[in-house]
Amino acid sequence: MTYALLCAALLLVALVVRAAGEIVARRRGRRIPVRPTLLAAVALVVLTIAFDNAMIAAGLFAYSDAHISGARIGLAPVEDLAYPIAVALLAPAVWELAARGRGDAGL
Length: 107
Description:
mainly alpha
């Protein structure tokens, strides 16, 4: 399995959970806010790029060229950005899905 395929599956799961969270939020008379999700995604992507490049440059880990697309941002493969994007999508959706009632979400 290639790294891109694994990341695509992760993003698909994140989108499905996000949609489920949005449906539950709307039933409760709320919405999952988009702007904070985007801001979190940008912050997480920037931090991922910075720290992945630092860790790869330090020799802490490496990626096999056979399993990545070859597109990189610095030393880090672009596929690594799927994880912070998935977290930004999943976190508010899981928070909404875990809320028990109308006042528990805190969003």
